[in-house]
Amino acid sequence: MRIFIAGGTGFIGQALCRALVKRGDQLTVLSRQPLMDTQAVRFCQNIAEFTDFNAFDAVINLAGEPIFDKRWAVVQKEKLLKSRIGITQQIVQRIEQSEDPPKVFLSGSATGFYGNLPNAKMYTEQTASGTHFAADICRQWESEAMKASHQTRLCLLRTGMVLDSSGGALKKMLPLFRLGLAGKIGNGKQCWAWISLYDHVRAMLFLLDNPACSGAFNFVAPQAVSNANFTATLASALNRPAFLCVPEFMLKMVLGERSQLLLDNQPLYPQKLLQAGFKFKEPELAPFLAKLMNRKRYL
């Protein structure tokens, strides 16, 4: 398969590229920093090199400014939005200009789409969007991608917290946990929607290869866990204590609006992936973290 990838050099993108190369796909990766030395991957620095996407069977867009790294000042909010909307618009334009468009377009999104949910049930892809800033970004991001849906099969990847020791949120957490200086956030009751990096990549390959799949998909494990449960489970996997607590007011003082990403309750369920026949390799947090803390890199 000939695949164009935007965002192929990030945490998820690198793992995806390795998996695609391993199975024999030919990749064109939009990046200013080539990271792989293989004949199966071509790097381009500007999407303007292409006026259309006739040359590709699939397009994957994972590009976007990291949402948690900087305080959400007005300028940063604009940067977060434009980094997602701008590249998505350019991709959609090239799909629309193609006489023989790609067969499938996987477009990034996030579980931030849903905002803070009542703790009454497990929520599926049918759940309405939330109202805060992260939800607004995801809504606009998805809306731009949807403009290509009349030309190609579109899959929206509403991604939860992606876990692997090589990067992402878990890599940032591990130093404090290893020092025994971690603990629950707020009251710890808020559900965190998570997925292993391994399953996230597998799910993307699954959607690429299954023409019956389209629309929005929750990229989360079947077992959402509370923050308190997550904290205790990771501490146990490391054989370290985790007795501290970060009060909600303190988190809001330090992080501002970004605190909502840690405090929002998101009991989400991957209904559409499961109904389509996808099988999770890492459906439960405890055995996954236990293995992750005692294994060599597998992606």
UniProtKB/TrEMBL annotation:
Q: What Pfam families does its record include?
A: DUF1731 (PF08338), Epimerase (PF01370)
The DUF1731 domain sits at 246-291
Q: Where is the NAD-dependent epimerase/dehydratase domain?
A: 3-212
What PANTHER family does this protein map onto?
EPIMERASE FAMILY PROTEIN SDR39U1 (PTHR11092:SF0), SUGAR NUCLEOTIDE EPIMERASE RELATED (PTHR11092)
As for family, the record states: Belongs to the NAD(P)-dependent epimerase/dehydratase family. SDR39U1 subfamily.
Q: What is this protein called?
A: TIGR01777 family protein
Biological source species = Nicoletella semolina
